[in-house]
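ARCHIVE CARD
SHELF: 3
SLOT: left
DATA:
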Amino acid sequence: MPGTTQRIAQSIEPRGATGLAGIETDRGYTVEELSRKVGMSPRNIRAHQARKLLPPPVRRGRVAYYDESHVRRLETIKGLQRQGFNLVSIEAMLGTHRSDRGGTTLELLIGRVESDHPALLYALTRHGVVGRTDDGVVRVVRPRALLSALDLHRIGLSPIAALRLLSELLDSTQCTAQHLVEAAGARLLALRPGAVDGARRSGDTLGADSAALTQGLVNVLSEVLRISVENRARTAVPQLLADGDTSEFEFDDDNGTREISTSH
């Protein structure tokens, strides 16, 4: 879905302008000029282009030229990174790496949540399921989580009820996730051979190790939790159905409070 970052520039700086803002002429920016204008290395600009976060430049002969739409996209990427979003999440928010399944449906649903259920939208934003770009547009960050919740329509759950359940589960598992990450991370580092004292490592090395450790923990813990839940559900769900024990939830969308009553 096109956003502000995808619109073509409405005007071009006058040719006689001076300083950094006056670099661009009718030909556009070279990658070095773009790098100086947005404060990003040419290597990172090309990396964003390879990930399709940045549209390809126009080539004239052997030289590639970028325009103001590229400037705005890079500024948006930098703004989202400052908010703590990684590149995978930014791809989803900017629509460059969207699931083929249900993309339009998710956009319509989140639009409805934004207008009719602001407390629910806030909860989903707080957990990073959706997010806002610098221009205020709400984007889906984790489509797989939303689609998994919406699959609960098979047991009669409405879309809004499913998203509320997703929010509740995220709330209730925060402490457990924190404990698992800390314990598993410490154990992983203890088992790793040839660990180097962090104080003697460069910033680049620490950054690479942090990214690798984070992704490794996400992958392993995701599978561990999946296996544990699958094993437990085989016995717990039939028992729940046999007992007929249900919980009823009522939400106040104005202030986000919740009342819980249990019936047998």
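SLOT: right
DATA:
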Amino acid sequence: MELCDRVAALAEELQRSNLDAVFFGTGAELRYLTGIHTGICERFKGVFVLSDARMFGITPPIYYEEFRAQLPQECPLYIWEDATWFYPVVRDLLRTYRLEGKRLGINGDVLGVDALEMQREAPLELVSARGILDFLRVRKSPEEVSLLRKALEITEKALEAALERVVPGITEGELRRFLLGYFEEAGAEGPSFDPNVSRGTHTATPHYFGTSGVVKPGDVLRFDIGCRYKGYCADLGRTFVVGSPEEEAREIYRVVRQAQEAAQEAVKPGVSAHKVDKAAREVIEKAGFGNYFNHRLGHGLGMAIHEAPDVKPGNAETLEEGMVFTVEPSILLPGRFCVHLENTVAVTSGGCEVLNAREPEPELPSL
């Protein structure tokens, strides 16, 4: 879908939502809509889209080239200077485009302080526009699926190469740095999120980003990693053991893998996201570990690492062909260890296609 088509569809969505305009800060939604991709910084920048399909951008000079290269030439682009910050320019623009007193949607990438300061410059009714593009982004095109598959391919190969380096005495940080270097050398933009490489009790911290842990014989070793390729994110979770595993870890691994398989079998168009989550959760509960599966089963994946749909209890949203999301059950024993397995799947007309090339082993793999 071309930019003009996306903007036209968005304008219709704004009218349905009774919004006069929406402001996109820089992030995944703006990149999806326009192609604009800039680094994170404190400077105010983004694009306004009005309900009549007009649009204009605003940026400090240091990001002018990135904005101008992606926006159509007929799209106005306004610059603010450090000496006055963005306040006077925004004040004039809100007046020029007759947005004073109107309903302005704010997307999820706009800093809260920036939204408040815009409202200070002109009377505005600020409205959350979180997920305003979900109606376009939630169903992936074949081209998008291909990019997601490529990101997963790089991630899986990076993991395979890292596993060859696992020996007692290697640190979490050494493995983490190897993965980041592999991503770059393989043509990825970088990691899609801060990678989790954890050993032993560290695996029981769901979002662990330490680097000092030293791998020891008998350790459970967890990887939750992904790269970003041409804007699209991979997310892969695997669990191993260094040396011979204890029977408890073997049993828990089997349960988690069975839960993942049950969820994937439940995926098909027309099924609710809740039902897919339930399929995995029932397996874990039946095995007696229900209290140790304390998160949603999965999340959408695309230009953002977390996007629609949420595969979780209570979400009645029905799956549609083209949706892509993770299936990642886990059992986490606090203070001890965690087994976490994560695949990425696409909803097809016939059910479910796993996009990563290799599924987890049926038994806990030993390194």
